[in-house]
């Protein structure tokens, strides 16, 4: 293969597998963040499969890719969320390098490595063919390869901890590479302290060894004076190599931290560790929660700093080269004092008590908000509030439920302006991006002479809006009983309307002739027939609308609202490529299910149906009832269903237990899953694999129940997450297996099966 396509060329091809390609606005709205991330994961999975195709790509492809190209898939900000499950967090912040729960599988891999060592001695460390040494070298190389791709390692990772304790002679090269691409997360301040202690102890041991060798070095120097020039040069090079690796600090390239600081001493300790152990290391995200009053707090060289001081005020802060600061202040924080050098964006939450922000004058993007009591109205008769005159050069300004004064220059300068639940006292805004939400006071006529992005939410006090002839985006969300003020424009790229008063057929046709993309929500559309005059080349998306007849061909995406209808008619929606049908706890009936096949996206939740579905790019079946067979699906997600139960058993009650039959009457029975590239089953009960799951490339079982693995299907990849037996008495191991036979997979699962407490599995 290398004779025709080089690794660098394969890297260019691989980048296309997970590149975030531009998508239509309808796809962005219809697919949740989870679905979008799953789609990107599919591309990363394809990249990993490509990497495994041959030895050359396995070794060299990761290093030919851009550094951290997979970081946003391998770790998202939800990994820092304290409300997600511990298991999910551990999967995103990787603690264990290599699976410790697959002893049978690991033994198979070790045997394969021994066979490879016999044939490829040149791949072992130092020219030796020793299995232990070659395995260590292989582990280190793969660890660094995945690090280069963007894996974030928990600081407690045993592999990293072992490297911290290793001498520079054996680990110097590792730390040299890790300092260029390593990403480490510290779950608390003590974890950072432990890292510093481990590094310091090893350094002290090295210095002791060096002192012990000093006398020998003096003798070596005298010997070098009489040694041949070639030997002298070699000894000098060896000493330089040792010195370079001894001086290599044990640091990552990027770190993240979540810590609670209870006093000034801990804050000072954080600063000291930042300046010593992590000196020169870029901070990715730092979350600091402070529970006591502070005289000072500092942070530097951090991409995102999330700071909570809700317990007490901070006298002085020092932020240097912190790109994004999000600060929750205490109610007694009257002023902000300190330095903000290199801060690009500041979000000051709970800022109603702050009146002096002069120190923020040089920050280009600022948000001042107050969320402490969202239902309490802003008292317009109270003191003027924060003085905005220092923000005369601001580029982006957001004011949310705060009082302010002297805003004229800031409003005239800002290119992006968001005002929410505040009083607007002027009738002209110069910003190019304007977002107005629930204004407390507003002029009758509002002029937006430069705006290309306009967002008006509950701005019924404004009767008329003027804007440029050509704009990019217009969003209006208005539930008043009077027609909203729709700006007059000649052309817009996208218009998104959510109105309490329906638009007439003539108004919809007029909009259709002036837009590229049109999103209509709720009662904005009264009847499907009113859309007939919109041109077919306009991308129309209908969200939470009532379907009372055939959907016109101009509609590219549709989410149906069920009020007043007895179910869904597949014939009415046969032309819509992206379709979401929510049952809203009522399990509405879907008629003519087979007519919904062949979609780009089909999402059915809490619906009742019976039949077959096929030829969909993406199919989601969530909390449904009835029975279905699916085939020829690219990506399939099924939640809360029963698999492997035949239609005859469902009909006459034979061949299944009483509990199973009771659930079958309430849940969806999936009689067949065939020809599916990616299949994810969540909270499903699997009565039998055989005869139900066939020709599936990748099968993911998440919190599923099944009693037997004797009839596992032949799949390219099998993933288990938190699965148990039907009675919850036994837990199957969390495992990922690729390219294994059903017998091998069954053996691994049986080896890892362990008893668990029933109360642990409270679903």
Question: How would a crystallographer describe the biggest sheet?
Answer: 30 strands, mixed
What is the structural class?
A: alpha/beta
Number of strands: 36
Overall outline: flat
Relevant terms:
two-stranded parallel ribbon, 18 helices, alpha/beta, 30-stranded mixed β-sheet
What can you see in these coordinates?
- Residues 237-247 have a biased composition (Low complexity).
- Residues 109-123 have a biased composition (Acidic residues).
- Residues 108-131, 197-249 are annotated as: Disordered.
- This protein is of the alpha/beta class.
- It has a domain at 579-584 and 595-646 and 662-757.
- The protein has 18 helices and 36 strands.
- The strands form four sheets. It has a 30-stranded mixed sheet that branches. A two-stranded parallel ribbon has the order 10-12. Strands 15-17 form a two-stranded parallel sheet.
- It is flat.
Topology:
Layout: H1 7-18, H2 25-30, H3 33-51, H4 55-64, H5 71-74, H6 86-92, H7 103-119, H8 131-149, E1 153-154, H9 158-164, H10 168-181, E2 183-186, H11 189-226, H12 229-246, E3 254-261, H13 264-275, E4 282-290, E5 297-308, E6 317-328, E7 338-341, E8 345-349, E9 365-369, E10 386-387, E11 396-400, E12 404-405, H14 408-413, E13 416-420, E14 433-437, E15 445-447, E16 453-457, E17 464-466, E18 470-478, E19 491-499, H15 505-512, E20 515-521, E21 539-545, E22 555-560, E23 567-569, E24 578-582, E25 588-591, E26 601-605, E27 607-622, E28 625-639, E29 641-643, H16 647-652, H17 658-666, E30 668-682, E31 685-686, E32 693-702, E33 717-721, E34 730-731, E35 735-738, H18 742-752, E36 754-755
Parallel strand pairs: 1-2, 2-3, 3-4, 4-5, 5-6, 6-7, 6-8, 8-9, 9-11, 10-12, 11-13, 13-14, 14-16, 15-17, 16-18, 18-19, 19-20, 20-21, 21-22, 22-24, 23-25, 24-26, 25-27, 26-27, 27-28, 28-30, 29-30, 29-31, 30-32, 32-33
Antiparallel strand pairs: 33-35, 34-36
Helix pairs in contact: 1-3, 1-4, 8-10, 10-12
